[in-house]
Amino acid sequence: MTAQHMPLFEVFIRSRRGLDHKHVGSLHAEDHQQALEYARDCYTRRSEGVSIWVVKSSDIAASQEEDAGEFFDPMDDKPYRHATHYRLPQEVDNM
Amino acid sequence: MHTQTDLFHYTLGLADDALVLGQRLSEWCSNGPFLEEDLALANVALDFIGRARMFYAYAARLEGAGRDEDALAYLRDCREYRNLLIMELPRGDFAFSTARQFLVDAFNLPFLEALCGSTDSELSAIAAKALKESRYHYRRSRDWVIRLGDGTPESHQRLQRAFDEIWGYSHELFRAGEAERRLVAAGIAPDRAALRATWESLVAPVLTEATLKRPADTWSVDGGREGTHTEHLGHLLSELQFMQRAYPGLQW
Fold first, then answer.
1. In the CATH scheme, what is the code of domain A1-61?
2. Residue B62 region by backbone torsions, left for phi larger than 0, else alpha for psi between -120 and 50, else beta
3. Which of B33, B40, B139 sits opposite A38 (nearest CB)?
């Protein structure tokens, strides 16, 4: 199977008890429909999930290692940005 | 009036269908065209083997002769198997396996739906479990028929040849012997012949979309339910039964 016909897809699964989809791995498939079915076969065999997202790996943009300094370090010494004193009402507990 | 033996033989036939097809599918494990499809085929194989276990367990109880599911699955000789011939044909190339799987999946869908309405509660319970699997199987094999049929010249030619070679084995799906007809009259077994129209509606449009020619109904083979098998079943059983025959009573 040539790479052009079977692009790589990233797979995200939401478990029965979960609220968000988690990245579980990747696979090759011809299109999104086939990627969903292969994800079902590869990643939900042991009842790991109830919902599947597949995204073409080429559609994912990732932050670069060399930018880590300017992206993330400045947050370290600004505690006034955290909403530490706000208590969430029970109804919105899962924010 | 049907007998307990009729029901035992009928259930055994359904179990053998599932076991033999599961075994053929499992032969693709580590031999698949690529990793994802290898896993998918192994999953389908396990679905059928799981189904076989349920039918064998029930058959063993019906027989009431002290045999368990393993004894039925692994310790009978060729002529005692009651599976349809289409299940035991060798896996061939990927196109042949696809063609066989598609024809069987298109049958299992209406068959299991009908079996859900069986007056026998065990059979209808097994059918209800198996039906969801079969919906997925049909989706998969339908997709592959279209991908390969409406694919490259090579995939189209291989799949057309596969359907041409296997078509005559599909008629056995719709045949029922005397014993089975007694069970149909009792509301236990679905009427196979009556499922043909639905099967056609699940098969013909897909073949058309896959740009394939529907083979002619000029030849047919049967005998599976009576134990008259092709030479392929013997080879399958020699692999399937080796462990149990070489090490009788072995426990994991």
1. 3.10.20.520
2. alpha
3. B40
